[in-house]
Amino acid sequence: MLQSGSLALPANPNQDFKPRTQFSPAQLDQGLLLFQLKPAPASPAIKQARLQIRQDHQEPKTYPLSLENTAGSFQTTIDLNQELAGSPIQAQIEISFDQGQSQVYPLADYQIPLDKLKPQVQVQQEDRTLHVVISRAQTLEQAQLLLNHQAYPLQQISPALYQLSLDLPTTETADIQLQAFQQGHEQILYRKTFQPVPSFNQPPETSTNTADPFPAIYPAPTYPVGQCTWGVKRLVPWVGDWWGNGGQWAQSAQALGFATGSEPRVGAIACWDDGSYGHVALVTHVNSTQAIQVKEANYNGQGSIRNYRGWFDPSRGWGQLTYIYPPGR
């Protein structure tokens, strides 16, 4: 852990301005761990605060804190659906005050209450391919898919995420069982029988081009299959692996140096922040700021990647809109 820095404040150089902090498991049923910070009494105004956490020998992760209310409290949300292990969290907060001083405060180790963190299974069929994702998987030791009694191990993408994609049979039914092992005990997380799928017909997209300029060919192992983030990651290669929920993408991209703005451009990512999970889509056609077309997943619960809406006004009803521009544009 980093050592505390020095802070010289004119009022009382010996006064401790370490804020009150806590991790809250109140939203663990959604896979979210809340971190809250309340400034110490008589503390100078806080300009910026960041939480840095480390587990075992992994690289540290940094989470910017946002102002929660007029009382000056800050908070951030840690998404356990796809990242972090079950081991204790070693943390510190880095604070910049309005006067220009800064300070680093180490925090006590925190153990995630794993008994409240239940694995979540997502299964999405795309043409003949079956995509399987287990998130919030910190308590699992191994996972495998049985297809007609043949075992296929899931790849562990992170301590919290397992994923597998495989083709379904074209001439026979497919009996699927998803097995997981926890403390040596086997459990069945999912089972279903799929009928033969020699072809999968989708309504053609409206386009004057015979070739799709944005095919879904890129891997997206760190995003849940069928979600909007997974869909955009499949479409463009320059998206990062850990940008969070759709509503967080603009902030994540800005932190990495990507240009953002309010002008729609072909090849840009539209990012809507509604204060919750948000939504992202890839811009494929632009007529004006009020008329664009996009390719996306998880539109009205539809997990496939396609153009669902034709021309539409992106400024209506989706929250704050920001466009993320590709590198070099």
From TrEMBL:
UniProt superkingdom: Bacteria
Region spans: Disordered: 1-22
A Pfam cross-reference name: CHAP
PROSITE patterns xrefs: CHAP
Residue ranges annotated for the Peptidase C51 domain, each copy included: 203-325
Descriptive protein name: CHAP domain-containing protein
